[in-house]
């Protein structure tokens, strides 16, 4: 029975996507356009230069395209299914999370797992096409590929907990759309979604080193393209693991506090 509950929770958002073919077509079109535009942009930026910020053209293009593909692992439409914490807090339905057989924290984690696996299928398919077409470079070695996969897994765990903290904010602010948009923008900027952190000023890179955001994406992609050498991989993986543990403990504390603040708003 527990396995059945877990399976039903994990497939909530992916089912919403799979049962809406026009939405999947739109995702494919948007992903294709993003990859083409990003690759064209970085090719153009490197027209008159060889190496910038320690990256050559192929490394920069590979990083940018992989960042687009990685972002697909979290861009599922939860709003269509009205299953975001923000919506539940607004309509007063968050109370049902505490009446289900699954604890709310486990339901949230299982649902996120299903979304990640579905998004990973999209990212893997896009990566295979881009690698075959020569848009992105393959990893330098098997060791690099292995370290990248491990770092990407840790990065996704860090990202899950960062986004979970944003969701948990709703228990204290109820309506925090603007704050969530600002924090999501900051997360994208500081994690290297918009551009590799190596292109930013030194003070910006130093500041980001004290925050968990770069551990979500910049570290795994920098390991993949070789901007972070394998000799430094152990330290980077340790930092990522430390953020996972710290954020796990912090969100567990917030879940306990949030349970004391559950209330019904609106409907």
From TrEMBL:
Entry keyword set: Membrane, Transmembrane, Transmembrane helix
Superkingdom field: Bacteria
Transmembrane segments: 117-136, 142-166, 178-197, 237-255
Pfam families the record matches: ABC2_membrane_6 (PF06182)
InterPro entries, per database record: ABC-2_transporter-like (IPR010390)
Protein name as annotated: ABC-2 family transporter protein
Organism: Streptomyces justiciae
